[in-house]
User: Fold this.
Amino acid sequence: MSRRSIVRGIQIIVGITLLTFGYLTYSSSGGDPRTLSVGFAHIQPLWLLVAAVLALQEGVCGGLRIWSLGRVLHPELKVRTAIISEFVLMFTAGVTPGQIGAAPAQIAVLMNGGMRFADVATVEILVASCTISFFLLSALGIFVLRTMGLFVVHGTLQADVLLGLGVVVFGVALLLFALSAAYPPLAKGLVRAAAAVASPIWRAILRVLTRFDRTRAWAERSLAKQGELRARTLLTVDEFHNGFRVFMKRGKKAFLAAFLLTFGFFCSRFAVAYFILLGLGLSTTPTEMVTIGPPLVQIVLVQALLNFVLYLAPVPGAGGFAEGSSRVLMAPWVRAPFEVPYLLVWRVLAQFLCMFVGGIYVFRYLGADVLESRVKQVEAEKRANEEQALASQREPAASNTAPPPAVSPDSPRAKTA
Assistant:
């Protein structure tokens, strides 16, 4: 991750968001932009301020989660450093596709605060296990409600497909974490088996891509890195197992606190939509049956479903996906001419506000160049660990190969020679 990739990510998310809002504005206003003023006619600034405070709590809860786990391995970790690392993570997650820049950026900030790479990597994996557990629990809850006919999704969004994809992605990850904690050899065996099946297919795809000028360089680099992903995953298994053992000895309360903070992290994000409705002067009671519970609970459940879109979207900041899916899911509460005002305020508060705070720290206090150098240091250490893991895998294979038998001077072969 470099300054160039950060700027490119910002340009992509801004461009897609502007195009999406342009389309939504035209379609909801019937070509007459003056009708949009109706959406802001009954604005309540106090409720919007409450929504903004709740949105910022997402970064605070996430930072406290890092601090709760990090101080078990590094007691000198400061609360301020942990919270800043979370806002930086949210910024880089928003400007990189699939949120791939999030973890390296947060690791870089924590290392800049004095933590060792091995300790930060352990904390990141434990945080990921908390997040994955929340996703699976929320998916299970929504699935049960939909099975009982108590959660109705209006519009064209394929909720069951989305839930199924989320369960598969996050379920496989949680299963790997569970096996890593309980019995690493079995987890490594599954990783090697999956790699044996997927690697030939992936290599064939890359060889096809080498025939095209636009993808040749990337495909050749990827072919040269064959085995790195498997080594990285095997290394993650060992790191999680070792970290889990440490936390089972002296970090049970910290892990429980991190798990509870994960619920605070997401619930504060989901509740933002409720207060935005109040801020725009809209009713919090849906016009159609959505799900059970008071309006706040219903909106939180809908936002939990929307959260799968935000995490699984392949573009930076889920640009386009976020606005379109939110428009469908929030239709029982938000109708024209309030669609665009709601989406605009929701996007700014629930998505961009924490990214903006993280971006300020990156560009002003830490500096993009400093962050880039730290990220490169993190990636260098990861590569060194992966190469060590690859070397350790080759050594047993070499030792299992029997050396050629020595030729005795009195043997017939020696005499013949």
